[in-house]
Amino acid sequence: MDNNFSLSTARSMDTSDPLYNLRKRFNIPMFKGKEAIYFTGNSLGLQLKNHSIYLHQELKDWQAIGVDGHFNAKTPWFDYHKCLEKSTSTIVGAKKKEVVTMNGLSVNLHLLLTSFYQPTKQSYKILCEPHLFPSDLYILQSQIKLKGYNPKDALVFLPSDENGVVAEDDIYKCIEDNKDQLAMIFIGGVNYYTGQVFNLEKITALGHKYDILVGFDLAHAAGNIELKLHEWEVDFAAWCSYKYLNSGPGNVSTIFVHEHQIKKNPFRLSGWWGHTFKNRFSLQTKFKPIKTAEGWQLSNAPIFGMSIYRASLDLFDEIGMKKIIHKRINLSRYLEQAIHLFNQKSTDVKMKIITPGSAENRGGQLSFLISKRGKEVYTFLRKSGVYVDWRDPNVMRLAVAPLYNSFEDIARFYNLLLNAFEK
Ligand SMILES: Cc1ncc(COP(=O)(O)O)c(C=O)c1O
Known about the structure:
The structure is a single chain. With about 425 residues, the chain is an alpha/beta fold. The chain folds into two domains: about 1-50 and about 320-420, Aspartate Aminotransferase, domain 1 (Alpha-Beta Complex); about 55-320, Aspartate Aminotransferase, domain 2 (3-Layer(aba) Sandwich), CATH 3.40.640. The chain contains 14 helices and 17 strands. The chain has a seven-stranded mixed sheet with strand order 6-12-11-10-9-7-8, sandwiched between helices. Strands 13-14-17-16 form a four-stranded antiparallel sheet, covered by helices on one side. The protein has a two-stranded antiparallel sheet with strand order 1-5. The longest helix has 25 residues, at about 320-345. It is globular, with a radius of gyration of 23 Å. The two termini are about 20 Å apart. Bound molecules: pyridoxal-5'-phosphate (PLP).
């Protein structure tokens, strides 16, 4: 078994991996003259070497024609977001008209909740996951207050074990138990802390059975797991582009609004970029939203950030989520085996995987509870050129990103860990 994690075995696995060479298209951070082991693509994806192909063009157009770039740039800025529609909708299984790229993720979640969280005296509660990302908690709390309710009463947290993992049946029971008072279900498609992947299709179907709106934060899901937002009839969702989608720090987010919700033309906070194209620039007194998700836009688009995102989306178009997911499963399984073997060999430090499910139904992230000396393990790894993430009190998060992680990364990680902590 140890042999499975020798560098030569891992390298031969890389050689037979059809996606291995994609790694060469990324700038991998260096550590002491060697490529570092980067397992934090769930936090910030790596930079593509060709990240600026479109950015160069936009800078050139701005330099050459200034404001005329809105209509006469090679890709006119006026509706630049449209060139991202096909790729972003394909990644999440949506129709093109159901997505639009704009703003940052937290801003978009506020915009969507403003439209879709419409509490009544009877139904005003929001069901969410435990250990939800802090920004999501603040968003929900403030939206509830904005609508005149008390977050302490209106937020219903799914029950979980001591690590924050939710038993699937408890989700459905919790929906049933609270169905009369729930206005909305809002959870992360993949929990940022535990890496738990939720069954979005079943949750949506059960929510809809009781007329409860269902929305997801897909920050840790987009570009990572299979999504069929249109087919599952999810009402709305949003995600960022800088994790598995590699668009760069703080870059734009994309929203999804199902066409059945677009047709209802709900209230939204409005801005000129959401107004119908034809007379966006003329003097208007009445806001007429574009009849697609674009109707949720407020500001004119941040072209430079979008142009970098566009370069990273090209790679997703080229490879497709099917192959990416296939490799992610193999990497994740290999990482899990490495941890099991480490636990067998180490009599002291033990790493318990808290992320539920098998490699097939997890995402790229594995979260580990470290029995003791956790901070020491983390610090050792960071000082050895391994990018991992630490969450107090004793959870370490690692994610494999199939576009650039290799089997060799995992074998090197295993051998480092073993040499330092096998006792
Ligand atoms: C699950 C989740 N939600 C929301 C956010 C906030 O994203 P932003 O800072 O782009 O608004 C993050 C950021 O990492 C996240 O992981």
